[in-house]
Amino acid sequence: MDYNATTPLEPEVIQAMTEAMWEAWGNPSSPYSAGRKAKDIINAARESLAKMIGGKPQDIIFTSGGTESNNLVIHSVVKHFHANQTSKGPTGGHHSPVKGAEPHFITSSVEHDSVRLPLEHLVEEQVAAVTFVPVSKVSGQAEVDDILAAVRPTTRLVTIMLANNETGIVMPVPEISQRIKALNQERVAAGLPPILLHTDAAQALGKQRVDVEDLGVDFLTIVGHKFYGPRIGALYVRGLGEFTPLYPMLFGGGQERNFRPGTENTPMIAGLGKAAELVTQNCEAYEAHMRDVRDYLEERLEAEFGQKRIHLNSQFPGTQRLPNTCNFSIRGPRLQGHVVLAQCRVLMASVGAACHSDHGDQPSPVLLSYGIPFDVARNALRLSVGRSTTRAEVDLVVQDLKQAVAQVEDQAVAQLEDQAVAQLEDQAVAQLEDQA
């Protein structure tokens, strides 16, 4: 139950990748049949990805994954800012408002490391300024008013994840987009460049409908291994190279229209396209199934442990969350998440983001940002169900958790008893020594 960390490949995806390995081994830039076959597969996959998100195929660039896509957006915004310091750029002809100034970014306090760390690095290098907007402890979201209040004349990008990977909280990206669009009209009239909007949609794709027109974003990150595809990704750029700037981080053979050069990985792209096709066909069914199983999981947890002992960390009244994600804590002084998981026999889950799995007793900074108390956050477990998770598996997991908690608590009692016996023995020895 750790499908937010990664997902297995669907059989159809494996088949598409295998066929591409056998039949489309040629270089996609080559003119002969094996090369043309590879190019056709890549073009078909691009169309499938575009259809999944309601965009245009020419606005899709293939990347190695979400980390590269997110870094590419941030890199491009910095490059575009400096390109426009002294000359008019191709996407609006605006000058930087303050010569020698740094581009300003706005993001939330709960972003994935592939957004947070590049931004922090830019600040350390004195290349950019960044405002990390805290999430509301009432809604769990990055509030639109807080984001708009952080805007400066040098602001170039707002990057807000579509859904949080630890809690499943869905961010108000459409509302942010509408407000930024209105603000951009004022900025253009004042001679300032428009603000671009990026969303990392890694966790949302395959779990709920995602449409770039509804979201109103300029950039959207796609990660294949979160929706039963291979471990590559893509980046959507609205009006790529025409309305929205993109600057390559790599230079080479000119593939992907020079935006992301390097000989294309045809089998992985074929698998990504098939995974996107399955999402387009079945997303509503996937969503309904996962919500049913997740809700049943939360019911069983409360039934077995009691509502007072279970704290559901990602439930905020009136706030939408992903249909598959359950972040909860079992209250108790020794029931830290990693301790409980270590005693589980069948449950495979995590205490938060997989990339933070080595943090031990330290609670997730994301949960602390949401206002979850330290002792509760330290006990957190993130269970994320998948397309094939069943209610029967939920029953097994809840029983597994129950025995794990009992084992941890029995060990704690035994330890206290041993300490008490040792203390009595020490006292007895001290009395004998006094008598002697």
Global structural class = alpha/beta
- Biggest sheet strand order reads 1-7-6-5-4-2-3
In terms of per-residue confidence, which ranges show pLDDT below 50 for 5 or more consecutive residues?
Answer: 88-96
- Which word captures the global form? globular
Give the number of helices: 12
Q: What is the tally of beta strands?
A: 10
Strand content: 5-15%
Q: Give the SSE order as H and E letters.
A: HHEHEHEHEHEHEEHEEHHHEH
Mean pLDDT: 91
- The radius of gyration is 25 Å
Largest sheet: 7 strands, mixed
Helical content, roughly?
40-55%
Distance between the termini: 62 Å
Characterization of the model:
The chain is of the alpha/beta class. The protein contains twelve helices and ten strands. The protein is globular, with a radius of gyration of 25 Å.
